[in-house]
Amino acid sequence: MQIERLSIELSERCSKGCGFCYNGSNREGASAWDLDDLRTFVVECAAHGTKAFSFGGGEPLEAPELLWPVLAALRGLAFRSMTTNGLLLDAELIARLAAAAIDKVHVSIHMPQDRDEVTRVIANVGALAAAGVRSGVNLLVRKSRLDAARDAARALHDAGIANERIVYLPMRGTDVPSPNDVALVAAGPFQSTTCLSKCHASPRFVSISARRTIAWCSYTVERRALEQPTYAALVTALDGLGLVDCDADHGGLVKLVTTRRSSAAPRVPA
Asked: What is the CATH number of the domain that holds 61?
């Protein structure tokens, strides 16, 4: 098994506290990560061939005691990206991200119907780009808010943020858009999660929560504990791990059994 991409939630702290958050992040959200463990773990994973690390949460900028040291530890070893709500992205933090030479920052639009949020995210992305930080947008698409998502996409395009820099994220669990819905919002070739059309897993991508549980996807409830902060423990925990479809709507969750022969490679949206 070769795990090429790791998505790691640093904590469940997030002052935005969206009610639909898949992991229930909030202002008091905790983290099970110890800095020494996390730093040792990511460096060991990089040594075993992990090429890209995506840091999220929660809001990673609300876990500075973990974010900055881990970015420093991986500098020059792997691709490092971060997903943020952008609320803390002032000039000082953007300068610090530039100094850390982070490879990419994606700013999320959770409520495309909120024009102020859309305007702020456009400004965030512009400020990041001006500082030399590669940047993009994660746009949440809900079935019930397709018009708002279309309007937000147009605003992004008008600001010079093309679909190559936007990841269209379908809402999961409830209010789920169809692939055609997302395509209409994007109005052209677009990036999304590979689960847009079908729930499946890849042995090359793994998600790790702030509670140090692992899964094939950030949204699934099928998880196992990472017993030790080592690459070997990660591989062991993945052996035989299944995947529960978070959008199953017929009387109960459908468990999809995955194997190491899966060839699907999810796109990392950060």
From this structure: 3.20.20.70
